Amino acid sequence: MSFQATGVSGTIMSWSAYQFFMPIVGCICCVCVNLLADHVLFNGYSIVVRVLCDELAHWTSSAYVWAAACSTSPHRKYALLAFLCDELAPKALTNLKRHPFFHITTFTASANVLLYLLLRRTPYGYMTALAFSSWFPHQVRDANRHGFMLYPFRDTSPISQPFYLFLLTLAAPIATFLLLQVVTESQISTTLQIV
Prior knowledge:
Blueprint: H1 7-42, H2 47-71, H3 105-119, H4 126-146, H5 161-194
Helix pairs in contact: 1-2, 1-5, 2-4, 2-5, 3-4, 4-5
Subcellular location: Membrane
Transmembrane segments: 20-37, 101-119, 163-183
InterPro entries: TMEM267 (IPR026572)
């Protein structure tokens, strides 16, 4: 005898199963893509393959963080912006002698705080969470190889792979979700003050 869910209750059961399993599937995909990219980066493949795999890992991490946060928040309509979170930059080779300005963790964190302060009470407050979901996984992925760049302080040593995977798959989506909640509450309190 087979179980077949029909009607509204079947739709609700299938939707809740989807909401439960999709973040798990996304987490597994994110881990697999990042481990594959690390394997390619550290095992002598051609520069083209290394750049493409590294960009794919950056994009997957950012898209996963944004999609995981949006799937559990009222900002679901912005979930498609995950595809714009990272860009393909063929010139961004993996063996740079020095990192570009936007790879300095203190700069990107300060820029994100400034963005939050400027946009938190506007209809564009969600952009703060989008920016965070883009730069934080990128910083974490780079910190796995080089450490966090904390200018004007000292750089950290490279972070361990388990900690790196924890930050990508659990800490970043939770932080993005909480940031979306704070922005939403700021927008609601601003609306109530106006009324």
